[in-house]
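Hi W.,

Here's what went into the run:
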Amino acid sequence: MLSENEAKILFFLKDLKRTNSIEISTKIGIPESSVLSLIELLREKGYVKTEIISEKYYVLTEEGRKRKESGLPEDILINSLNGQEKDLNEIKNTLDEDFNIAISWAKRKGLIEIKEGKVIPKVKTYTSPEYLALSNLEKADINTINLLKKRGLIEEKERKIVNVELVKEPKESEIGISNLTREMIVSGEWKKYKLRKYNVEAFPPYYTISKKHYFREFLEKVKDIMISLGFKEINTGYIEMEFYNFDLLFQPQDHPAREIHDSFSVEGLGNIEDKELLSNVKEIHEKFWKYEWKQDITLRLMLRSQTTATTARVLASRPKAPQKVFTLGKVFRPDAIDATHLIEFHQLDGVIIDDNFTFRELLGVLKEIFYRLGIKEIKFKPAYFPFTEPSVEAYGYLEKLGWVEMCGAGLLRPEILSSVRIDSIAGAWGIGIERLAMSFLNISDIRLLYSNNIEYIRDMKVKIE
Amino acid sequence: MVTIVLNKYKLLDKIHIGQQKLEDLLFNLKSEVKPIDENNIEIEINADRLDLLSSDGIARAIKGLLEKELGEAKYNVTDTEYTLIVDNVRTRPYALAAVVYNAKIDLEELIQFQEKLHGTIGRKRKKVAIGIHDLRKVDSKTIEYKEVPLSYKFVPLYGNKELTISEILEKTEQGKLYGNISIANGVSPAIVQDDGEVLSIPPIINSNKTRLNENTKDFFIDVTGTSFEAVAQTLDIIVSNLAEAGGTIGRVKVLKSTNSSQLSSPLLLHRIQNVREEYVKKILGIKTSKEEICKHVMRMRMNCDIENGAIRVTVPQYRVDILNEIDVVEDIAISIGYNNLEPSKYISTNYGSYDYMTLLERKIRELGIGAGFVEISNFVLIKDEKLFSNKYVKILNPITEEYNAVRDSLIPGLLDFLSKNQHAKFPIRVFETGDVVVYDSSTDTGFRNDKRAAYAIMNNKVSYEEIQAPIHYILKSLGLEVNYKEENNNIFIEGRSASIFYENEKMGVIGEVNPDVLIRFGIEYPAVIAELYISEIGKRLINQR
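Here's what came out:
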């Protein structure tokens, strides 16, 4: 098998039969160093015979290049005198540093005489043979070359030249090519050649592959499950009033969770147009929790600490039953950040408002959500949340971790429903998503869900589900 | 969630069951058990079941589930000669007291019980504070609750010399922790004997005089606070649990010095809660009968009668969590056992629907991948110094300076990401979609979430077109023929930055990052960035549908 460049050399040789490496390089346009190794390959393959010879050649020195440009000093001297005598001093000024060289070579060549401080030329013009040789070193006779060497205008070098002789004619079918071109395909020329083999078992160079983020994909999967269960998606903002995060959800204002370090506060107050709703909530709080409910507390701004705030906003819009809505979004809670805690994480909250909804149906919905997430075994535990009664926590069985708490849920308290004039029964739940994602993605450190290491993200295996 | 630590053997001994059974029963009472060491267990109690904060309360509840005792627990109650005179105490006006005789207690557990009540119903002693004294060390039958000057002296609990209240505030742990709750106008609330000797300065500390020890059997209990109901409930819970430990509850006469009202405490408040059979069936979705309902109520240690076809539940003093009919329904469900309630088969009869923004975000994410960007996911919270605008949301109580603000653009997060990946294989091409928070005076909070997408490329050499081309064709794929207007800001290099417009509305920004900014983020390579306003784009696309 012949490479394209090997083939080029052989075809060049086909006409000439013999040539040398320098000629090949200049005619074909391949660097001399490459030519030498290509010839060696061809010799090994038995196409050519070679003979390596050393050749002396000359190159101009720095000074040689200068003289080739502007002439030799004695030439300049003679031509500037133009047959006239001149004072040595005057000549010294014009020739400057070349003065000595010009005078001595002109004298040595018998071109001038020096008398009483004056230079007397013997010829009117002069061009030295050395100067002519500088432009045409190959044609120069040996004496001139020696003279140039002596004057330091050229230096001798040696190079390897390979004489090449064709011993075996190449066949076109032996020529391999690396790259197909459009021309080859269109002209049918490709048929003449062989496509070279590669080392196909070698590993490829690095390649960046774009992919969706593993955790984002999990979040989208959760949304898909909720849609498939017939829920409508809604979203509300991160900045929330305590009213929707707490008060409407029957959490008293003097509850320890309201203290500054259990949620993130933001400067400013919100505004609630629905005065009836405000007074209903106030009434219920004061009746059941027995304290003085304050409007300026309820309007305080915070980063929502639960997506149940979104559910609260749904309730505040006084929806007509039946309703099935969900939200999946970020919530914020002050905590020490470590392998299992972040200060921001996702929650899935859902609510069903229906005349005939029951606690058993709530358990059924939860079971179905977890079943579709891939958790087949689930058990329920009584729980406490201010806004639900009965309240329940669901535990799912995970292969590696055993029983893990998955969510909090319950039927919304009648006090809440009455404050928004809903006569039906409503069930609601909140599911922390990060912990579920960790177990499904097989990640042991929650911070890796938000990794800022691109190699980790690039290397993450894609889940097919 | 509140946790208490109990001696396992003492608890098991009270109810005569094995540990596994205990754990199962407690699980169904909303509680979880974790072993601590050979002798002790930690139990998680839910904040509503204050009656379960001591081993006696737990024993009472478990005896019901085991049907060893049904209905309300019966305790001995007797009158005493003790009187509490309640003066006008401005910072915490309510006070009640009780006496308990002959209760067998575990001192450590009693102190824990008191502390857990302080933390829950007491709202860290702000709403309610409890003082428990050795009755035999109380010298007078008349006790006064009144304001005393800060120069008043007594030996505080575990102290060995007299201190003034001022000194207690300065020098003791409790003084520093709780002093600010009740001290005002140069006076402190105090429980004092009729000879003026201090028994306690609520909510700060008791006097060493009436200190409890392992052998204390008779107790004087004072409860003070800012809510009469909470004070009464707290006292009821404490005396009930001490009575469960064999004690006899002693009534104290409470006189208000400012008027002639008189009552005796503990109140041992009982409430009648009617429960409708149909309601129970409707809520739980089960078949049942009045008799069965009553049986479950009794198992939960409440009395239950059927009178003229109506179910009457008597809520005892220790069940302060029962506010309404629905709370009884939950107790019935707990008695049945949640896992005995078969979940209904879920049948969806309607189609769900995505938020339009979710659908748009998904398409934009797909186009980002198609354009060769790797998706990343950053935090919403960020260090304010990294933000470029000055109209961001600042957190008033950040937990760390690293996250003390809410991002108002995705660009700072991307730059942060680039700075951490300078040793990764180049080129770095990443994008993120997500919410930022911006001011919006038209909303009820004054803020609004804004959905964005941002793209960045970092390489040894990058140019404006390298980012402009993919962004242009992402937008074109969405059907938006946009144009670019040179617009300079403090993120990008002057003359190499534009705003992206569609029908004269700004849809995003794009440009080569200013070296000053790169240096600020510790980035040593050139980078180009674009940010798209998905919320704006979404508005256009919805209008065009």
